[in-house]
Specification:
Rossmann fold, alpha/beta, seven-stranded parallel beta sheet, four-stranded mixed beta sheet, 10 helices
Length: 413
Amino acid sequence: MCDPAEHQKTTHLRHPRLTISLLHSSVCLTSVYLKSLRELWAILAHSRSFLQPCCFVCITTNITMLFRNSVRASSRVLLRPQAARMAPASALHTTRILSNAHDKKTPLAAGSFARTDDSITVEYPEDHELPSSVPVQGRGGLHMKRTLASFSLEGKVGVVTGGARGLGLVMGQGMVISGANLAIVDMNKEEAEKQAAELVEVFRKENPGSARVPKVTAHYADVSDADSVQGCISSIIAEHGKIDSLVTSAGFTENFDAINYPIDRMRKLWNVNVDGTYLFAITVAKHLMERKAPGSMVFIGSMSGSIVNIPQPQAPYNAAKAAVRHMAASLAVEWAHAGIRVNCISPGYMLTALTEKILDDNPELKKQWTSLIPQGKMGQPVDLMGPVTFLLSDASQYVTGADLRVDGGYTVT
């Protein structure tokens, strides 16, 4: 920073990439806060993708001893520009970062970091094109760590839709490891049968002395078709005798700008994500009420149901997951009298086999996603094993209507 320029009401501290403007009544405080200003500049200098030439910082007349904290809070907002619009007023109260919109040398328009990019288009592949998943190794077996008995799913029968791949398969395996028998539901019954056998094999390998091996079965269902869902539930009850818990993991996402999104694909997305969740939930609820038995359901939503992801455009998916989240809350209230708990898990960015393939083709997208996650990394499917087990178990008996976000802190910034 060079010498202040003379001005009757305002003092300017200039730098090739930054101008700091101090209103006259706060000029006398510059020496006190000069160190803090330098700290701010050091942070800004490492944020070149956001801080363009001729950016402007204004420190208002109500500057206080809280300025140092404000600098740090503001710097975090700068490094995560999309969150600035959601930050509380206190975070930006004494320090404002303004891009010089009139500067023709600035390549990025104001607000560009908080907008979707309609050049990103990802169409969900056909079923035969989906990569196969592999069961998790090393999570079962005997261990010496003590845990609450209420986390056990012993004696329960669980159902997971979309359970032959990805997140559904891993959550289903978590249920098996925790003691439940499992029914895997998927459009691809052949893949479901393969994974059912794999889960049993992994359990045997990791629990060689176990007196009981869980029963894992495979079932076909088109989750968007009521008759198909009813037939699937009937086949599960015929195999297992009952159903105690449900995880609705069947769903998919696509990236199109809204105007160009094919309407038939939008309807399919809504039918699978929303209608499929609803149809399975009400069918299992009827079974539980007929038995006068308590039960637990976990709907798999997404952080996209609470925020708008950037840069990929996906308005119908975001709306669908918001519907799933609120459906869970609504049914939790409606069915509480019957002892049926309904909760939602909203994952953030998860590195499934399909997501890895997409990011391999778009490496810059992965960098942008992880830059917006406080933990600095994407989640792994195994990160959902614990949350789903907790919500299905008696350990969460007084938890219903909740939305558990598993997103590395993405949605709290």
